[in-house]
Amino acid sequence: MRSVRQHEPGGELFVESLPVPEPGPGEVLVKMAAAPINPSDLAILAGRTRVHSWPFTPGMEGSGTIVKPGRGLLPLLRLGKRVACSPGPGGEGTWAEYMLTSATRTVPLPGKVGMQQGSMMLVNPMTAMAFIHMARRGRHSAMVNNAASSALGKMLIRLADRHSIPLVSIVRTEERAAELKKTGAAHVLSSSNPSFGEELMELANQLGATLILDAIGGKETGRLLKAAPAGSTLVAYARLSGDQILADPADLISMGKKITGFQLGNWLENKDMLFKLRLARRVGKLLSGPLSTRVHATFPLEQVGQAIESYREHMSRGKILLVCD
Ligand SMILES: NC(=O)c1ccc[n+]([C@@H]2O[C@H](COP(=O)([O-])OP(=O)(O)OC[C@H]3O[C@@H](n4cnc5c(N)ncnc54)[C@H](OP(=O)(O)O)[C@@H]3O)[C@@H](O)[C@H]2O)c1
User: Which atom of ligand 1 is nearest to the CA of 241?
Assistant: First the structure.
């Protein structure tokens, strides 16, 4: 099978020929159809996030058809199913013709969901749903989210609207702000605006936005925390700036604000099986609507380098997918 491989942290990518792996107990072999490039993949490829060992196959999510079951009831039940899938800890990723994974890491795709949308079902849609869950559970009247032109940011705008939770979306240029406003987003701010801090403080206080979702880190976290109402919770869920959080401890000490972190895998680990099944079913239903993702272009595995370049050039334009025939 053809598989994208990296041999060292930050190293070049190669498309290599490898033997098709055999599923063990509880595992399934997925014939891959499509897999997106996500910011977390770029962080891994740049060597900023650790992986199990090198060489390895990247790709945190994708879609395909289960063509071979390992021993066990669930693998057998999933045979022949079109699924969204992700690799297990220490497993090889989705940027390959075939991937081996645990049957529990596959979710059958609803009939009307195609392989391309299905390949992006697990990471961003589940995270958007998790953020809504956190807002409701924590009784936050409104939320703030940055890097909001992302696929996840756009999903959150549509989902928050559906749940009548006001959302302040922050982007880094006036151009992105105008684009988001055109899509119907109610509250959009550009962090490049000199009065951004005051505007955010005024809007967040007016709306009672006490759940602050931060994908950027660095100095941006400090600005968000400063502008947030007293008692707010800031959730760091990515580090797009590549920088460590820089914030004023006074906001934590005297204003009762908190900083915490979010990772989808850890969040799901603490949920029971019924919760996860319900979540997957709900995501499946919303995938053609509020949880859909725009696809900008598709590339075959052999053109993985070009695919990454195209993605880096304009991440907000839509997802780049690696597709197998
Ligand atoms: N913690 C978790 O479990 C979890 C789960 C899902 C997603 N995430 C994170 O959520 C974020 C969005 O993911 P996605 O797949 O939706 O992204 P995406 O659609 O690929 O878009 C990436 C976005 O990041 C923006 N961006 C890139 N570098 C930036 C920087 N230094 N400062 C500000 N904005 C920057 C880009 O905006 P421009 O157009 O301005 O370049 C673009 O809108 C990612 O960081 C991802 O890692 C985390």
Answer: 31
∠ CA 209-213-216, nearest 5°, is: 135
Cβ of 315 below 6 Å from ligand 1: yes
Distance 48 CA to ligand 1 centre (A): 15
Residue 117 has φ and ψ, to the nearest 5°, of -60, -40
Distance CA 221, CA 245 (A): 6
CA distance linking residue 148 with residue 322, whole number of Å: 24
Residue-wise pLDDT tens digits, 41-53: 999 999 888 788 8
Around 323, how many Cα atoms within 13 Å sit in the side-chain half-sphere?
A: 14
Instruction: Assess contact for 160 and 143: CB atoms under 8 A.
Output: yes
Given this model, what pLDDT does residue 294 score?
Answer: 96
pLDDT per residue over 170-202, tens digit each?
A: 999 999 999 999 999 999 999 999 999 999 999
The alpha carbon of 169 and the centre of ligand 1 are apart by a number of angstroms equal to 13
Q: Return the residue whose CA atom lies nearest to atom 25 of ligand 1.
A: 147
Confirm or reject: Cβ of 237 under 6 Å from ligand 1: yes
pLDDT band at 7 (very low <50, low <70, confident <90, very high): very high
Summarised one tens digit per residue, pLDDT across range 63-82 is: 999 999 999 999 999 999 99
Tokens standing for residue 198:
């005051």
Using an 8 Å Cβ cutoff, are 321 and 35 in contact? yes
